[in-house]
Amino acid sequence: MQSTVTPTHCPYCALQCGMNLTPAPDGTVEVSERTDFPVNRGALCGKGRTSAAVLASNVRLTSPLVRDEGGTLVPASWDEALDRIAAGLGRTRAEYGPDAVGVFGGGGLTNEKAYTLGKFARVVLGTSQIDYNGRFCMSSAAAAGIKAFGVDRGLPFPLEDIPKSGCVILVGSNLAETMPPSLRFFTELKENGGTLIVIDPRRTKTAEQADLHLAPRPGTDLALALGLLHLVIAEGRVDEEYVRERTAGWEDARAAAMAHWPEYVERITGVSVPQLRETVRLFCEPESAMVLTARGPEQQSKGTDTVGAWINLCLATGRAGRPLSGYGCLTGQGNGQGGREHGQKADQLPGYRKLDDPAARAHVAEVWGVDPDSLPGPGRSAYELLDALGTDIRSLLLMASNPVVSAPRAAHIEERIRSLDFLAVCDVVLSETAALADVVLPVTQWAEETGTTTNLEGRVLLRRRAITPPEGIRSDLEVMHELAARLGVEKGFPTDPEEVFEELRRASAGGAADYSGITYRRLAEENGVFWPCPAEAADVSEGAVPAGEAPAVHPGTPRLFLDRFATPDGRARFVPVSHRAIAEEPDDEYPVLLTTGRVVAQYQSGAQTRRVAELNAAAPGPFVELHPRLAARLGAAEGDPVAVVSRRGRAVAPARITNAIRPDTVFMPFHWPGEGRANTLTNPALDPTSRMPEFKACAVRLEAVSSP
Ligand SMILES: Nc1nc2c(c(=O)[nH]1)N[C@H]1C(S)=C(S)[C@@H](COP(=O)(O)OP(=O)(O)OC[C@H]3O[C@@H](n4cnc5c(=O)[nH]c(N)nc54)[C@H](O)[C@@H]3O)O[C@H]1N2
Ligand SMILES: Nc1nc2c(c(=O)[nH]1)N[C@H]1C(S)=C(S)[C@@H](COP(=O)(O)OP(=O)(O)OC[C@H]3O[C@@H](n4cnc5c(=O)[nH]c(N)nc54)[C@H](O)[C@@H]3O)O[C@H]1N2
Ligand code: SF4
Ligand SMILES: [Mo]
Q: What letters, b where the CB count within 10 A reaches 16 and e where it falls short, cover 208-236?
C-alpha cells in the first residue's frame, strides 16, 4: 500500500474541491486539507470531509451479485456475472434489435468513463438508446447557452472573478447548502462592495446572505426575467452600442419583453414592482454584473426559455463576454460538465459534437476505426428512455445513477424498471435501483482509480488513485472492456484511464469542448486546465499570451467570449420568449405547489451519503417544509406526519414548519426512498428543447395523518 499523501478531488459535487488522501495502516483513509486548489483553498463540506467512509467494505459492494432461481441476489464470480450480462444484452439485441438495449449513465462518471460508455453503446451494442442523469440536472441551461452563445460551458469565467463583480443575481441556487465552500466568493463580493441578489421561493441559508431576496412563486422565473428586462428598456438602461455590435435578434426579444408589464409580472410572480425596480437598479448601476442560475429556474418544463430570458437580460445590459460580467450555470454533479461533453448524451459525440452532423460522425468514426454509417442516430432523452423500459427497451445497462429515487414520477419508473427482461447495474453500493437488477457489478471509487473530471468552471482536473481497491472490485473501464470482448469487440476498450484520455483528446480535437492540448502530465503540474485547449499553439486566442512569446502549448481558456461568442458570426443571440404557466397549475383538488431540492448533508439519491453515520445524524430523513399558515389549516404541529398527494402518488414525511417559505408552496428534499420519496409526487412534464422534467413545480394537496 502507498503511504504517501495523494492530492486529489472530492467524489461528490461539481465544485470538485481539492483534498489530500492519506492511507492509514488500519486500512482506512484520512481526508485532509489541500490548500493549493483555488476553488476551495482547503475548505470542505461535511460530505467531502466524510467521503472516505464510503470506501469501507461494510457499506459497499465487494462481490458481483446475480439473481438466483429463487429471485435473490447472491454473490457470484466475475466471469459468471459478466457472462450473464453479455448474454442478457445479447439476447435482447438478437430478438428485438439493437435499439431494444438501453444504456443509462451518470454525471458522476469521469470523462474517461463517460466517453467509453458512449462509445460502448454505439460501437459494441449499436444502440441509439443512451442517455444519462445530467438530463435531469443542467440540460436546460446547456440548451439555452448553446442557443445564445454557441457553446455550453457552465461558467464562462473562473469562480475567482465573482468577488470582483459589481452585482450577482443568483437564480434558484442554494449554494450555501449545495456548494458550501463557494459561499466565500459571495461573501467576498459583498465585502468588496458588490451586491448579492438571491431569487428563491424559500428564504434559504443562501438567501439569508443576500442584500435583496426575491421570493417568487415556483415556476415563474421566466416572467420575472421578462419583467426586469421590460424595466431595463423602460428606464433607458439598454446598452445600445453593445446590442448593436455583439448581438443579434434584439428587436423580437425587445417586443416580447415590452408585453410583460411590471404589474402583470407582479401578479404572476408575487414579486412586487418596487422589488423589481430595485433589482434592476442594483444590477444595472455597477460597471459589471453577473447572473448565475442553478436548478430552481432550470428544472421546469420551460427551463430553456427561462434561462434564455435571463441571458437576454445580460445581453441587453451588455453583461456577457466582458470582464467580470456574464451569465453562468452552476453545474451540479462531480463531472456534470465533462459528463455532458463526451458522448453519453442521446444526441451527442465526443468533444460536444452533434450525432446528426455528418462531419462529426466522420471524425469520430475515424478515431474509433468504424464506418460512419454504422453509428446509430440520436436516441431518447432520460425520462423518455426510462418510460420506454419494458416496452420498446427490454434490457438496460445502468452506470452511476439511482433513478428509483431520483427520476420524476418515480413509482411509475420503478415499475418500468421492474418490467425489464434484463437489468445490469454497476455501482459502488447496493442502491435502490441496483437492488432490482439481475446482475450487479461492484466498481472502484474515486480514491481507488485515476481519471479526469471537469468542474463547473470548465476546469479539467486530475483525480489520482490514492489506494488499492479491495480484492474483488473492478473499474467501470474494466467492466466495459470485458463486456465488449464478450460481445465480439476485442479492441478499442482500454482499461488504463490515461490511454482512454489520449483517445478522447483525439476524438474531441476540433470540437466545441476541445481537450486535445490537455495531457495527464499537464493536469498534474498545472492544477487543472480550462477547455477549449486545442493542441496547436497557433490557435491561442488574442491576449491570452504576452505578445511575441509563442507558447509551447495552448494555455487553456479560463474566460470565454471576451472577443467573440462561439456562434458562426461571433454575435450572441437573443431569444424571443414569453411567459407561460407551469404544466400543472394548482386547482381546487390540488391547491398547493410542491417544489423539491436538497439539504447540505445528503447527496442526490442518497445512495452514498445515507451510508455515512455523521451525515445521517445531521439529516436523518425526509420532511415537508411548510408555512405556519398552511400547517395551521392542516392542524399539523412540528414533526407531525403530513401526507403530500399529487396526481402521481402520495408521500408522507414529518412537517417542518417555517415562515421561510411562501405560504402557497411546500418543499421536500429528494434524497430518500420509501414513504417519504419526493419523486413519487413530481411531474414528468418535459421542456420541449432540453427534455428536462418539471422537478421544481407541481400541484399537490396536503392531508393530516393520524399518528399511531
Ligand atoms: N448537499 C448537496 N449538495 C449538492 C447536491 C446534493 O444532492 N446535496 N447535488 C449536486 C447537484 S447534482 C446539483 S444539480 C446541485 C444543485 O444545487 P441547487 O440548484 O442549489 O439545489 P436545489 O436545492 O435543487 O435548488 C436550489 C433552490 O431552488 C429553489 N427553487 C425551487 N423552485 C424554484 C423556482 O421555481 N424558482 C427559483 N428561482 N428557485 C426555486 C429551491 O428552494 C432551492 O433552494 O447541487 C450539487 N450539490
Ligand atoms: N425531485 C427532484 N429530483 C431530482 C432533482 C431535484 O432537484 N428534485 N435533481 C436531479 C438532479 S440535478 C440530478 S443530478 C439527479 C441525480 O440523481 P442520481 O442520478 O440518482 O444520482 P446519484 O444519487 O448521485 O446516483 C449515482 C449512483 O452512482 C453510484 N456511483 C458513484 N460513482 C460511481 C462510479 O464511478 N461508477 C459507477 N458505476 N457508479 C458510481 C452511486 O453510488 C449512486 O448509486 O437527480 C435528479 N432528481
Ligand atoms: S462542496 Fe462539493 S466538492 Fe466540495 S467538499 Fe462538498 S461535496 Fe465535495
Ligand atoms: Mo444535478
A: ebbebbbbbbbbbbbbbbbbbbbbbeeee
Q: Angle between the 303-316 and 250-258 helix axes, to the nearest 10 degrees?
A: 110
Mean pLDDT of 511-528: 95
State the amino acid at position 293 in one-letter form.
Answer: T
CA 16 to mean position of chain CA atoms: 13
Supply the CATH classification number for the domain 65-135+334-540: 3.40.50.740
> How confident is residue 551, by pLDDT bands cut at 50, 70 and 90?
low
Is cis: bond before 532, omega within 30 of 0? yes
| Nearby residues of 42 by Cβ (< 8 Å), 6 or more positions away | 18, 33, 34, 35
How would CATH label the architecture of 6-55?
Answer: Single Sheet (2.20)
How much distance in Å is there from the Cα of 609 to the middle of ligand 3?
12
DSSP class of residue 147 equals H
Q: Considering only the top CATH level, what class is 592-704?
A: mainly beta
* Ligand 3 proximity of 612 Cβ (cutoff 6 Å): no
DSSP state of 130: E
Mutate to test the pocket of ligand 1, among 10, 12, 13 (most ligand atoms within 8 A of CB): 13
Nearest CA to ligand 1 atom 2: 178
- Does 65-135+334-540 match 6-55 at the fold level? no
Q: How far apart are CA 596 and CA 671, in angstroms?
A: 10
Angle at which helices 273-284 and 221-234 pack, to 10 degrees?
70
Local confidence band at 361 (pLDDT 50, 70, 90 cut-offs):
very high
For ligand 2, is residue 114 a contact (CB within 6 Å)? Answer: no
Which of 47, 200, 293 most suits a substitution to test ligand 1, by most atoms within 8 Å of the C-beta? Answer: 200
Residue 362, φ and ψ in degrees, nearest 5: -65, -45
Report which ligand 2 atom has the smallest distance to the Cα of 402. 20
Decide whether any atom of ligand 2 lies within 6 Å of the 668 Cβ: no
Note whether 195 and 212 are within 8 A (CB): yes
Give burial (CB, 10 Å; 0-12/13-18/19+) of 102.
Answer: buried
333 CA to centre of ligand 3 in angstroms: 10
Domain boundaries, the chain: 6-55, 65-135+334-540, 155-330, 592-704
Domain 155-330 part of CATH 3.90.640.10:
no
Give the model confidence (pLDDT) of 139-166 as tens digits.
999 999 999 999 999 999 999 999 999 9
pLDDT tens string 255-282:
999 999 999 999 999 999 999 999 999 9
Predicted structure pTM score = 0.97
Positive or negative, the CA dihedral 660, 663, 665, 670 is positive
